[in-house]
Design brief:
The structure holds 4 protein chains of 4 kinds. Chain A is built from 19 helices and 20 strands. Chain A is of the alpha+beta class. In chain A, the strands form 5 sheets. In chain A, strands 1, 8, 9, 10, 11, 12, 13, 16, 17 and 18 form a 10-stranded mixed sheet that branches. In chain A, strands 4-5-7-6 form a 4-stranded antiparallel sheet, covered by helices on one side. In chain A, strands 2-3 form a two-stranded antiparallel ribbon. In chain A, about 55% of the residues are buried. Chain C contains 9 helices and 3 strands; from the N terminus they run E-E-H-H-H-H-H-H-H-H-H-E. Chain C is elongated and about 75 Å long. The chains are: A alpha+beta, B alpha/beta, C mainly alpha, D mainly alpha.
């Protein structure tokens, strides 16, 4: 239950209290909340928190069955190759990372005991003692070095090869200490190593289908594209964990089929349910919704180096044309928060709330479009299912454009091959960015002049200088001030419009306890298996 | 009750496509005494089969028994329920179908089907039924009576199937047996054996019978009394002798007239030029052997000559290769060996390589007009097509010529807008012929064109052919298994047996044929005299060598 | 597949006998075709507009068929959907039946090696499941209306070919074909004037049946996300995107399914009750 | 007589091989036209040029497609289906479990739908023109006209969500007891039975009606046979040819056409595997699945022909 909800005021709290006293039914409550404009639909969430404030003590035992939304023959247990939620969940249950992000986005230690560095360039990592792999071998520095080095080898095809490139040297000082040297200073190294891809595997592993890690569960069966079953790791180094005996993870691509599976009791947990199925869940007893604003967003990119993005007025006009509230309400069914065209989400400690997005103003938009003579021309906008809800957003913007005589031609393209053929290439297209733990990763990945994923080709030397300066700073207050300034620059000057941060909603049966929000994504940053338990 | 069967003004109606209701049987009454065999005579469409079937209380789909009484063996079939009628079928009254080949279920053995009546009505245990069946097979002089039961219908000849269907009818010891034109589909020689078998079995069991047919000669051999039907009404009844000697009703007289041999006018003598000559032509089916001849040789080195203005008749039983010969001459089925000379010029074997004029001058007319005329096109288009194709006539000229052609074949002009399915058998064959004439041919090959027609209609068509020959100087090759038709029109007759030409004679020397097979063939044609069948004595050795055992 | 005519009274008109079921069915089909033609002019809202703040809204004044999952007007989307479902399916079935029948007749008349290799090839095509074939094609060239029409047409050509060839082979053995061939007629004449008139009636019945299969396959493809591009949507896509409304019987999912059913059922009924030519003018 | 069937089977095997080759070449040609390749799709957003190049090297995707296809074909002769690009597992292992699932579902559906369809078809033909006949015809027309995902979703909603009698998913690996098996297979089998039996009913009814109008059936009537004896003993054996053909066509749908049912019930069958394979451009997997569909179709057609021949002594 997220207890850190940004726009939840005490007035709303009072409203809920007296509603319960009057015996308001769940349906009325939902209507009241929606009408009240609070961009927060999952009333059961609130109900959950208000009634059983005292969390019951964890119960051990039971089999937990969860369903994600996509799987294929390309499923893998190799953390470096993990490409989607299904892979992350399985890796989290089998392996551990050096560090992890807790529900407040603060970096906590896991396999590492301590991270220290004087100049943020060379880091010494002390490993925890007494940690063993599933096959009984002890965790040593060599395993960490092997796990880090393999990201640089192109034949591995690691998803974070670019981020790992900045780590130039790894040395096993002794059995339980590792020294990491960076190309240039980066204060966020501990947070970076909390990414799922940096899970620690045993030295020399080539066949990852065994899932031999140090994690809370041991692999029982794995059929790519079908299912995986893991069982409790008796001698797990975290005492008292995990609570579950066995955890099965499958994937159901059809949204309504996934919800129906939950409702019929076949599965206890349905990840990332479609906003349209919300109404159905609401009418059933015994089910909860868990909403997390994790920083995942779908953005509309207008390339500044190509027509029509070249004309500043066009970009400004488009920013006025985007009705952010309607997108959150209709496209995301209220499960999201209005965005201010910059990548650092409210869930991140460095978020700068003072940066205000441009209000929805069709007339101003029309004025800008007329100035550059683009009114009435048909402008192609590429969207796809690959970028969540991008089609619904495109249709809403298209409808708004039609009102003022602006013809936006929405072209929906198939999802396979989208990132390869259309993303970063089409003049106006939608993208989708997964959450990243630190503003430094986000900015260097997306907005730096030489950024590999510079979606709108935003080039600003001043911005690049600030980026490098902030990276090496160890003083958090100064860094927050610089990152705040960078966020307003991006919101003003870049060609990328971020209408909203998408909240990830998972649905679960009331018997499942222990679930918390996490900035790295739904299902407690995919690591829920370790923390959940099943009430009798 | 002296009569086994008493039918009092039976009325049956049928509903046509457009829902119009038409009376097809208008008040028929007849009686059948015990052990008596009566014949129902009439052209196709006269209602004779419908009346016969009504004796079993059965009406074909679309028809309904609406009035009158049908007392059979004391029970009124019209009044009984379907269940009760079913009890009588096969036990009291049995049925012998027209084409036995189609009436046997291809998927089960002959014995099973023959003894099925005993199993349906639980008359006797299966073992006893089998023994009874074998006795009947022997009585019907079927070959290998013990073994034939195990075979499937397609492994047995048409004649044998016909006799097996009789066994099937008799196994239930019926009081009355209905024979529905059982021998029409058979060759003349086989017909004799079948009729002999029927007659002996019926007489031995003293069973009453109804023999439906359109062939007066056949009926004369087997029936005691004859009922003549036309348009669903009884024209005349009487004993066989009365009908044959002094028939009153004009229609009956017409039937009898069709049997007298027509006086033949003197034909143009063997004129000098030969229209068509073929020299030892061989053709057949199946894989071609190394000597270039096909495995199965249907036509075996046959030679013949057709003079201008004279007709050649080709006669033989089914399977003797006469149709294949016709197709070889027309080029439809290219010959494997031998050459064909037409109007002095050597013809290519396959029609495809012949010149358009050669194709035009030689036309072929087929037996079944239903398949020879395109059902989807009106008569005028069918006749006009050769005019457009060969003579490039424009619309008016074609339309005028079509009218002339319709007159030539004695058809009313109003027929031109009708589709073939709306014409009678005779009319269809005339349209078929008009199409051939449209090409102004020199030679017309007629392949069994009258076999599917009633005797009366057939003789009319023959008359037409003769007139046209006189007017247009045509010559015909007339192929048939029916001697009387060939005698009526042809100047020379060629007899074929087993793919070979056994003899060529002129019509007047028919009785003085030399080759044994021709003798057997010509002697098997039934005569109007009722005692002919009993008196017929056939050289057994001849029959065994040439007849279809 | 003949259904007895006893049920309906037979009225005759223009030389054909009609019956009640056949007439009703053809009226329904006519209605949908007219809607398909005049859809753009009669729809109250454009199909992209969001007109209702709530989603899966009930039927009411102004929004006669309720609203869909985004709050768009269902009536206009169904009417425009008719244009795509009927239009695309009709175009596809026309192409597939035309080419299937022509190929079938040519194969039957020429026979020999052309017949065998054509049959072999099209039989092979038949073995690839239709939805997967659609998937591969759309994945290769993207999904636009012409691509959809061609894909649907190609999927059903083998079926039309086999059906027409069987009929034509039957007609080919008839004597009037032999007479025409001996006359030296060309293959085109044999097909056009001799065979086609005889097999046109069963081919029309097959045409109707294939139309139904194509409508269903189109909605199947939409289910797999391979159908039309938003905001365009044929009925199958409408059912697919509003499937979320099924649990509480939202009109948004019920109406398009009824539309599909009404069209396919009436086509099926029409096939079984085609007007019969009156042929009882006795000689 | 036996030689009749033997050379038919041999001739049919020859055509099967030829057809199979045609299909494999057609599928190869289609897949080679697909944009992008396995490497770029697997890397997804992280697909930088050198990462893609590195992965292609690892998967040896660099040699030309035609060569890879021929190597797969050559491997096929030795019964080796090649290794999947996406996860380096042998294709046979990937397909193995799913093939069994598809066959199980197809088998159970056949056992249920074929007898049902035949009885309905035959009885409708026997009682032609009656109320029963018309209801069966209208029902079969109705069922044919409803898209299958409607049938499936409705079934799930009614039986799984509201009534909770049956599981919404068919997790086949939890079927330990017979009751489990029945519960798990109930829903997909019911849906599939709906989808394929309608067509079979119509075909059976038409075939039986046609044979009922033949002379030998009328002969049986004239021998006093009852209506049921006429149909079962005389009409049906001769109508077997077209009926068996229709059944074969419907069953071939069960192998490849059930992608929608598999998606809704999350049933791990081959159709979904083929969809994944196309999405990841996994050439060996696509070819193997296409081969299975083609073989399934051809074996069914051959079986239908053999049964038709056995039932008709004239051809035997």
């Amino acid at each position: 239950m997220t207890d850190k909800i940004t726009n939840w005021t005490s007035a709303d709290d009072a409203m809920v209290e007296n509603a319960i006293r009057r015996g308001a039914s769940r349906r009325e409550l939902l209507k009241m909340l929606l009408a009240g404009g609070a961009a927060f639909a999952a009333s059961s969430m609130v109900l959950g928190r208000a009634t059983n404030a005292v969390a019951a003590t964890p119960v051990s035992g039971g089999t937990f069955k969860a369903a994600g939304w996509s799987s294929s023959t390309a499923d893998t247990l190799d953390p470096a190759k993990a490409s989607l939620s299904t892979d992350y969940v399985r890796c989290c249950s089998l392996y551990n990372r050096l560090t992890f992000l807790d529900k407040d986005g603060v970096t906590q230690m896991e396999l590492a005991e301590s991270f220290d560095s004087k100049d943020a360039k060379t880091w010494t990592v002390k490993l925890r003692k007494g940690v063993t792999f599933h096959d009984g071998k002890d965790l040593t520095a060599d395993d960490v070095v092997f796990s880090m080095k393999r990201h640089l080898d192109p034949t591995v095809g690691s998803k974070v090869a670019k981020i790992a490139a900045q780590m130039t040297g790894f040395k096993a000082v002794d059995k339980s200490t590792v020294e990491i040297t960076l190309a240039d200073p980066n204060a966020d190294l501990p947070t970076i190593l909390a990414l799922h891809h940096f899970m620690i595997v045993q030295d020399g592993t080539t066949d990852f289908s065994k899932g031999n890690g140090t994690g809370a569960f041991v692999l029982q069966t794995f059929e790519p594209g079908v299912r995986s079953v893991v069982t409790k790791n008796k001698n797990y180094w975290k005492s008292g964990k995990p609570h579950l005996d066995s955890f099965e993870f499958i994937a159901i691509s059809d949204d309504s089929a996934r919800v129906n599976a939950l409702l019929s009791g076949d599965i206890n947990f349905a990840a990332s349910i479609n906003p349209r199925s919300m109404k159905l869940l609401d009418s059933q007893q015994g089910f909860e919704l868990s909403k997390t604003t994790s920083g995942n967003y779908t953005d509309l990119n207008i390339r500044l180096d190509m027509d029509p993005g070249k004309k500043a007025d066009f970009v400004a006009g488009m920013k006025y044309l985007v009705n952010r509230e309607q997108i959150v309400k209709s496209a995301l069914r209220g499960l999201g928060e209005v965005g201010n065209d910059q990548p650092v989400s409210p869930a991140n400690v460095f978020h700068n709330p003072d940066v205000k997005p441009k209000a929805f103003d069709p007339d101003k938009a029309k004025f800008h479009f007329q100035k550059v003579g683009l009114l009435g021309q048909s402008i192609p906008v590429v969207a796809s299912d690959a970028a969540t809800s991008s089609i619904d957003m495109a249709v809403i913007i298209q409808a708004a454009g039609a009102e003022i005589g602006m013809k936006l031609d929405v072209q929906r393209v198939p999802s396979d091959g989208y990132w390869d053929n259309y993303w970063l290439k089409a003049p106006i297209h939608f993208g989708n960015i997964n959450p990243r733990p630190t503003p430094d990763i986000l900015f260097s990945l997306l907005y730096a002049s030489n950024a590999p994923w510079n979606e709108s080709q935003y080039k600003s030397p001043k911005f690049d200088k600030l980026l490098v300066e902030a990276r090496g700073l160890l003083d958090q207050a100064k860094r927050k001030e610089i990152y705040g300034q960078m966020q307003s620059m991006v919101s003003e000057e870049a060609g990328t419009i971020i209408p909203a941060y998408i909240s990830n909603v998972d649905a679960l049966s009331s018997k499942v306890k222990g679930l918390e929000a996490n900035p790295l994504g739904g299902m407690m940053g995919y690591a829920m298996a370790e923390y959940l338990w099943l009430e009798a | 009750m002296s009569n086994l069967v008493e039918v009092r003004n039976l009325r049956i109606e049928a509903t046509t496509d457009a829902g119009r209701v038409v009376d097809i049987i208008k008040g028929v009454s007849l009686d059948i005494a015990d052990g008596e065999i009566i014949a129902l005579i009439g052209e196709s469409g006269s209602g004779k089969t419908t009346v016969a079937l009504s004796l079993m209380g059965h009406a074909r789909p679309g028809c309904r028994i609406t009035g009158g009484a049908i007392n059979v063996n004391g029970k009124d079939m019209a009044a009984l329920s379907e269940k009760e009628r079913a009890k009588l079928r096969g036990t009291d009254i049995a049925y012998v179908p027209q084409s036995a080949a189609a009436s046997f279920n291809p998927a089960s053995t002959i014995m099973e089907q023959v003894i099925e009546v005993t199993r349906i009505h639980k008359l006797m245990p299966p073992e006893q039924a089998r023994k009874r069946a074998v006795e009947l097979f022997r009585a019907l002089s079927l070959p290998d009576p013990d073994g034939i039961g195990a075979r499937y219908p397609h492994q047995v000849s048409g004649g044998q199937l016909q006799r097996l269907s009789a066994a099937m009818a008799l196994i239930g010891d019926p009081k009355l047996v209905i024979f529905d034109e059982p021998t029409t589909a058979l060759d003349v020689t086989t017909q004799i054996d079948v009729l002999k078998a029927f007659k002996s079995v019926m007489r031995a069991g003293g069973i009453a019978g109804v023999y439906v047919s359109h062939d007066l000669a056949v009926v004369a051999q087997i029936a005691d009394r004859i009922v003549v039907l036309k348009g669903g009404e009884v024209q005349e009844t009487g004993t066989t002798a009365q009908i044959l000697s002094g028939a009153q009703h004009p229609y009956t007289r017409e039937l009898l007239a069709a049997f007298e041999p027509k006086p033949r006018q003197a034909q143009a003598e063997a004129s000098a030029n030969q229209l068509l000559r073929i020299d030892n032509v061989t053709a057949g089916y199946g894989a071609v052997r190394e000597d270039g001849l096909p495995l199965i040789r249907a036509v075996n080195s046959v030679s013949l000559v057709v003079e201008k203005g004279r007709n050649l008749g080709v006669i033989g039983e089914s399977g003797c290769g006469k149709s294949t010969l016709a197709r070889v001459i027309a080029g439809i089925h290219p010959a494997a060996a031998g050459d064909i000379v037409f109007d002095g010029k050597e013809l290519q074997r396959a029609a495809g390589n012949r010149s358009q004029d050669q194709l035009r001058e030689m036309q072929i007319v087929f037996q079944y007009a239903d398949t020879a005329l395109n059902p989807a096109k009106p008569v005028e288009d069918i006749i006009a097509r050769p005019l457009a194709f060969y003579h490039r006539l424009d619309r008016q000229a074609r339309s005028k010529r079509v009218d002339e052609l319709l007159d030539m074949v004695r058809l009313p002009k109003t027929l031109r807008y009708r589709h073939p399915s709306e014409l009678s058998g005779g009319q269809k064959q005339r349209v078929n012929f008009a199409r051939a004439l449209a090409a102004n041919p020199k030679l017309i090959i007629c392949d069994e064109i009258t076999s599917a027609l009633d005797t009366v209609v057939a003789s009319a068509v023959i008359e037409l052919l003769k007139e046209l020959q006189r007017e247009l100087g045509l010559s015909y090759i007339f192929i048939s298994h029916d001697l009387s038709v060939v005698e009526a029109i042809c100047d020379d007759i060629m007899v074929m047996y087993n793919g070979e030409r056994v003899e060529q004679i002129t019509p007047d020397k028919v009785n003085a044929a030399t080759h044994p097979y021709s003798k057997l063939l010509f002697s098997s044609v039934p005569k109007l005299d009722p005692t002919w069948l009993d008196g017929l004595v056939r050289d057994p050795e001849l029959v065994s060598q040439y007849g279809h055992r | 597949m003949t259904m007895t005519r006893a049920a309906a009274s037979g009225r005759s008109f223009l030389g054909h006998s009609y019956n009640l079921v056949g007439v009703i069915a053809s009226l329904v089909i006519l209605a949908w075709t007219l809607i398909a033609i005049f859809a753009p002019y009669i729809i109250p809202h454009s199909i992209g507009d969001i007109v209702d703040d709530d989603y899966f809204g009930p039927m009411r004044q102004g929004l006669w068929l309720g609203s869909d999952y985004l709050g768009r007007d269902m009536l206009s989307r169904v009417l425009m959907g008719a244009r795509y479902t009927v239009g695309i399916s009709l175009a596809a079935v026309a192409i597939s039946c035309f080419s299937g029948v022509v190929l079938g007749m040519i194969a039957a008349v020429t026979g020999g090696w052309l017949d065998t290799c054509l049959s072999r090839f099209l039989d092979a095509m038949n073995s690839i499941p239709s939805k997967l074939f659609g998937l591969v094609v759309v994945a290769a060239v993207g999904s636009s209306i012409p691509v959809l029409i061609l894909t649907l047409a190609v999927i059903y050509i083998p079926g039309a070919y086999r059906f027409a060839r069987a009929l034509a082979v039957n007609i080919n053995t008839m004597d009037f074909m032999t007479v025409a061939r001996v006359r030296g007629e060309s293959t085109i004449y044999l097909i056009g004037s001799e065979i086609l008139p005889n097999i046109i009636r069963p081919v029309l019945a097959d045409f109707g049946l294939r139309f139904v299969f194509i409508v269903l396959l189109l909605s199947g493809l939409s289910f797999l996300g391979l159908g039309l591009q938003p905001p365009l949507a044929d009925w199958g896509a409408l059912v697919r995107e509003n499937i979320g409304g099924l649990p509480f019987a939202a009109p948004a999912v019920i109406v398009p399914s009824l539309a599909i059913a009404s069209l396919t059922i009436s086509v099926n009924l029409l096939i079984d009750n085609l007007p019969k030519k009156i042929r009882d003018r006795d000689a | 007589m036996k030689s009749g069937i033997l050379n038919l089977v041999l001739k049919r095997l020859a055509t099967t091989v030829v057809t199979l080759l045609i299909v494999l070449f057609a599928v190869f040609f289609a897949t080679s036209m697909l944009p992008g390749d396995t490497a770029s799709i697997l890397l997804g957003q992280a697909a930088t040029p050198e990462a893609v190049a590195g992965l292609r090297e690892a998967m040896h995707l660099n040699d030309p497609a035609i060569l890879r296809f021929l190597r797969w074909l050559f491997g096929l002769l030795h019964g080796d289906l090649g290794t999947s690009y996406a996860n380096e597992m042998p294709v046979a292992k990937l397909i193995g479990g799913r093939f069994v699932n598809t066959m199980e579902l197809a088998g159970i559906t056949t056992l249920l739908s074929v007898p049902l369809a035949l009885t309905l078809g035959i009885t409708a033909a026997m009682l032609r023109g009656s109320i029963y006949d018309r209801t069966v015809t209208i029902l079969s027309i109705g069922i044919i006209s409803v898209p299958e995902f409607m049938v499936a979703t409705l079934a799930v909603l009614v039986f799984a969500v509201y009534l909770r009698w049956l599981p919404a998913l068919s997790s086949v690996n939890e079927a330990h007891s017979l009751t489990d098996l029945v519960r798990i297979y109930a829903m997909p089998v019911i849906t599939l039975t709906f989808v394929i039996s309608a067509q079979m009913i119509r075909m059976t009814r038409a075939a039986v009606i046609e044979t009922l109008s033949t002379p030998y059936v009328e002969m049986a009537l004239l021998k006093g046979a009852s209506r049921s004896r006429m149909v079962l003993k005389h009409a049906l054996p001769n109508a077997l040819g077209p009926i068996v053909n229709a059944v074969a066509l419907s069953l071939s749908y069960l192998v490849g056409g059930v992608i929608i049912v598999e998606t809704i019930f999350n049933y791990p069958g081959i159709a979904k595997l083929m969809v994944d394979a196309v999405a990841t451009r996994d050439l060996p997997l696509i070819q193997s699945c296409a081969m299975i569909f083609c073989l399934g179709y051809l074996l069914l057609i051959t079986a239908a022909d053999i049964i038709a021949i056995m039932s008709n002594p004239r051809l035997r």
